[in-house]
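Here is an idea for our session: we take a single protein and study its fold together. Start from the sequence, derive the backbone structure tokens from it, and show both lines together. Once you have written the record down, we can walk along the chain together:
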Amino acid sequence: MTTGAQARPRLLVLRALGLGDLLTGVPALRALRRAYPRHELVLAAPPGLAAPAAASGAVDTLLPAEAPGRAVPRALPWRGPPPEIAVDLHGNGPPSHRLLATLRPGRLLAFAHPGTPEVRGPAWRAEEHERERWCRLLRAYGIPADAGDLALPRPAALSPAAGAVLLHPGAASPARRWPAERYAAVARELLERGHRVVVTGGPGEDALVARVAVPGAEAFPGGLPFGPLSALVAGARAVVSGDTGMAHLAVAYGTPTVTLFGPVAPALWGPPPAPRHIALWYPGPPGDPHGGRPDPLLLRIRPEEVLAALARQEAVTAREGPHEQSSKEGAP
């Protein structure tokens, strides 16, 4: 942090999670930006999220912080005086509460937990949409927050595959990965129908991308940097993926989505209600989103259902014209 930045009061937000988590937290981050315009807003998050954090327009500084899985980092590389305000957007504590408390903030905003009775925040609700959860936390502290304020500004770069249907078969855990052979079946049918098809993957997913990228499809393996990836997503005709950061990125750019849910219901992590966003899900008992094999509910979704959803979207697009990014996609 620069000397000039240290002259400003600082507000620290902990959300040391993945891309999808960052994007669902954008409405809360923007609410904090509006409530504290003179503060330096410091986001504790993985260093690879610096570009999307900057794109939100709410974050001044990214403080590198991460831990395996969804764990709370053991420490934060904070320097200088304590933050004037610390906000826990990571979880409901107590580990995240205690991590922030070690910095001796002037004020800590967080959900209540029996393990940290000194935190007098609102009650945690397990069955609550992720975007609304953090906005409700802020509203409990008197900070207006709109869960629909999630759109990102359109990238300046041109898409390398404008108008393509983008298939993203990867996910952080096997529980949320629809089988590669089903993605491949969707790719083949789309190509036969005359669509341009691209397949993307994250770091370490080259083999998965190769299994889905049937002849005629274009592959973007290896984990694209955020700049090219954002241009690709923003310029796509539609994005088909599991419940991953890619789905949230497409929603942020107003790109039509078909998102395949399994262990977690779309009511908790799904897109806002809009014809351009279709969530495919078979209701059933919740599963483990971090499990080691595809969730049974996810496996109930067939390629024909994905193709039918894309056809419905195409009809909507034909009536409304090409998708345009709006300032708000709508609250969950």
